[in-house]
Amino acid sequence: MQRQVARTIHDYEMFGGEDRLLLGVSGGKDSLALWDILTELGYSVDGIYLHLGIGEYSSESLQLTERFAASRRLEMRIIDLPVDYGFSIPQAAAGQSRSACSVCGLSKRYLLNEAADGYDVLVTGHNLDDEAATLLGNVLTWNTEYLGRQAPVLPAVEGLVRKVKPLIRVAERETAAYAVLRGIEYEVEECPMVAGNTVNRLKERMNLLEEQSPGVKQQFLFGFFERGAEHFGAGTKPELGSCLSCGGPTTGAVCAFCRVRDRAIRLPEKGDA
Ligand code: SF4
Q: Is the pTM higher than 0.90?
């Protein structure tokens, strides 16, 4: 695992020893295993935990992350969505036509990017299964915009920090095994809002294909990076303006996070009336 991650960092020139690294940590096996691996490889990495306000699940994940960081004396910050922004993911999801996971995903991207201000690189724990399933979803819907943005490294552009995914060669089962072998306690419960998560459904399908044709996930994902991505404008910089509400990067007038937040905060008032 450590060699695979080191090779991925090297091959995709993700970062060097001088870079200031921030890792998004969720309390799950992938991000904690990656924190452990990067530390073992000699990198100094701070963690950022996003408290999404998903009941017990969020509280437990936070405890596990704090315990991990304390046991290794790692620096960790917390962004508390309900406290800092006034709404939780369940609240936001209740008022949207989007799925809970879509609202959650865009919120996490926004908050992680904000948290990474002052860092050179934002590191995430997306693994082979996550990326192969996401790619399959984007191909099934021919979402050419997302296909053009799926890459092991997303370079920094105005307002957006550089993002890297060092776990893309490692399967979910391997990060689980690594965590157990390294004595890492991680959140084993699934998020209660996961029902309807498209990526999870596609992961199950990909696992069936992998059983019949071992290696197919790797071939699919890395074949895309090597021979497919260029056809979807990979590497072209998105044209971004500034959000009228928060000033963050956006392709529209007001960014998706501000629209979600405004709607979530306004909802209870509507109910009261
Ligand atoms: S399952 Fe969905 S709602 Fe739950 S943490 Fe993951 S993305 Fe967010």
A: yes
Task: Quote the pLDDT of residue 189.
Answer: 93
18's CB contacts (< 8 A; 6+ apart) are none
CA of 148 to the centre of ligand 1 (A): 24
* Those residues with Cβ within 8 angstroms of residue 190's Cβ, 6 or more apart along the chain or in another chain: none
The closest alpha carbon to 135, from 208, 233, 228, belongs to 228
CATH class of 2-237: alpha beta
* Contacts for 12-15: CB closer than 8 Å, 24+ residues apart: 12/152, 12/153, 12/164, 13/153, 14/121, 14/123, 14/152, 14/153, 14/164, 14/166, 15/43, 15/120, 15/121, 15/123, 15/164
Protein residue with its CA nearest to atom 2 in ligand 1: 101
- Residue 202 confidence (pLDDT): 96
Q: Rounded to whole angstroms, how far apart are CA atoms 76 and 46?
A: 6
- What is the Å distance from ligand 1's center to 194 Cα? 6
Tokens 């999404």: give the residue. Answer: 52
Q: Whose CA is nearest to atom 3 of ligand 1?
A: 101
What residues pair up with 250 in beta bridges, in sequence order? 241
CB atoms within 10 A of CB 81: 24
User: In the predicted model, what is the mean pLDDT of residues 242-258?
Assistant: 94
pLDDT at 268: 55
Q: Which residues pair with 122 in a beta bridge?
A: 22, 163
C-alpha 217: how far from its chain's center?
19
15-69 pLDDT per residue, tens: 999 999 999 999 999 999 999 999 999 999 999 999 999 999 999 999 999 999 9
pLDDT digits (tens, 9 = 90+) for 199-223: 999 999 999 999 999 999 999 999 9
Question: What are the backbone angles phi and psi of residue 96, rounded to the nearest 5°?
Answer: -120, 155
